[in-house]
Structure formats: C-alpha cells, structure tokens
Amino acid sequence: FAEAAEPKPLAGRHVLVTSGPTIEPIDPVRFITNRSSGKQGHAIAAAAARAGARVTLVSGPVAIPDPEGVDVVRVETAAEMLTAVFAALPADAAVMAAAVSDWRPADVASEKIKKAAGHAPPLSFIENPDILATLGHDAQRPKILVGFAAETTDVETNAACKLATKGADYIVANDVSPAGGVFGGDRNSVRVLSSAGVDIWPTLSKDKVAERLISLIAEQLG
Ligand code: CTP
Ligand code: CA
After folding, report:
1. Residue 99: nearest ligand to its CA?
2. Which numbered atom of ligand 1 lies nearest the CA of 150?
3. Which residue, 47, 56, 99, 211, is the most exposed by fewest CB within 10 angstroms?
4. Residue whose C-alpha is closest to residue 194's, from 219, 159, 151
C-alpha cells in the first residue's frame, strides 16, 4: 500500500517566520547579541513547510542548518530584519520567534577600537524598532500574527502586556530562567495567550511545539 499523503492544511498559503538572534555591531570586530539558538523558530518554519505553505524564514546568525523547503533570508541587525520582514509581505500568517536586540550601540566605530591600559570604553545604546509591534499595527499585517515572549519573572503578566500592546493574535510565552534549559535545549514549556485566554501546553519538544502552533494557525486561517 502507498502511504496516505500527508495533509497539507497550509497549501497555497505564505507563512513568514523570524528566528535566531540579531547582532548589533560596536565596531568591525565586536557586537552585542541575545541568546538564541534559532531551534524553535527554525522548527516552526519547517513545520509550516511540511503543512504545505510557502515559507520565508528571516533569520539572524545561527549555527543550525536551514530547514528543508524554506526560503531563507539571512540578516544580522534588527534594522535588517525589519526590512527583510516587510520585503517578504504579503503573508497569510507570521510568527516572530526571533530574539531581536532591543537596543543597538549608539555609535558604531568604523575602525577597530583599540584597547588602552586602564581604560574601558563606555557603551551607550539607542532603541531598535519593535518588528512585531510595527507589523502588528501596519495595514499589511498578516491575518494571523504570532509573537513570543521570553520572560524570567511574572511570565503570564508580562506576556499579557505584550499581547495587549503589540497587535498580535497570539503570544507564545516561555520561561527562559537559566534553570529551565530552554536556551539551546530541545524542549520547551509554553503558555499560549490570546483573546480567548491562556492555554498551558505540556513540556514538548520544540518540533512538537512548532507542529501544534502550525495546526492552530491552519485552523484559524480556515
Ligand atoms: N520583538 C521584535 N522586535 C524587537 C523586540 C522584540 O519583533 N525589537 C518581538 C520578538 O520577536 C517576540 C516579541 O517581540 O516575538 C517579544 O519579545 P521580548 O523580547 O520577549 O519582549 P520585548 O517586547 O522586547 O520586551 P522585554 O525584552 O523588555 O521583555
Ligand atoms: Ca526584548
């Protein structure tokens, strides 16, 4: 017997996913960044592709391979990620799983800053654009918009605040306290917040979290 064809609930749909960290240069050899392996975002892109979607994955620098069947756009800074996200529109659904740097160094030195004994240079920052909130309040907003929330305290309260302000339909909240092992790990314990309330998912592999999220999106797109 031939195996039954996998269902393709997202056939004909375009899904946009962000993943990985952004990096923000200080000078030609130094940068600041966020902790992010890209595992969860890449798993979401892969699950969307398996569900039949055309997928654009906008990713910061990660050490994992590109998912199969996905168009990958590589970026470094938050500003580049914002541009790439808007260039990829329109999309039916977007999942913003990237760990975007909230700030960037105010002045980027064009030459390497040389060390001088007894002196450490000060760093000052300016705010980066909030890509999720920008998309959430834009006329080109995808029908379904999913954000994440990385929290170390008051997970649900902080995530609810993000749901209320960023224009997203869903916020996937995870506790990234060092004890939890989410960063770089293969499992994730999430709470999914929406206007319908809070859904606490069991601890699952990042692949299973991705599959459940893609099922939810497919259901909502109808
Ligand atoms: N995000 C974004 N652009 C930023 C910062 C965050 O698009 N400049 C997105 C992330 O991809 C994620 C969501 O916003 O989907 C929440 O990110 P998070 O860092 O948890 O929240 P912030 O709103 O940045 O607030 P804070 O870091 O203070 O908790
Ligand atoms: Ca942040």
Report:
1. 1
2. 20
3. 211
4. 159
Tens-digit pLDDT profile for residues 1-20: 667 777 899 999 999 999 99
DSSP 3-state of 120: coil
- Mean pLDDT, the chain, whole residue set: 95
How far is the centre of ligand 1, averaged over its atoms, from the C-alpha of 50 (Å)? 27
Q: What is the pLDDT of residues 41-65, one digit of tens each?
A: 999 999 999 999 999 999 999 999 9
Residue 158 falls in the annotated catalytic set? no
* Residue 150, beta-bridge partner list: 174
Q: At what angle do helices 39-50 and 206-221 cross, to 10 degrees?
A: 50
Find, among 16, 26, 103, 98, the residue nearest to 62 by Cα. Answer: 98
What tens digit of pLDDT does each residue of 134-169 get?
A: 999 999 999 999 999 999 999 999 999 999 999 999
Task: Give the tokens for residue 160.
Answer: 């609810």
Q: Of ligand 1's atoms, which has the minimum distance to the CA of residue 162?
A: 23
- Terminal-to-terminal C-alpha distance of the chain: 31
Q: At residue 94, what are phi and psi to the nearest 5 degrees?
A: -135, 140
Report cis status (omega within 30 of 0) of the bond before 67: no
Residue 136 to residue 133: CA distance in whole angstroms: 5
What is the pLDDT at residue 2? 66
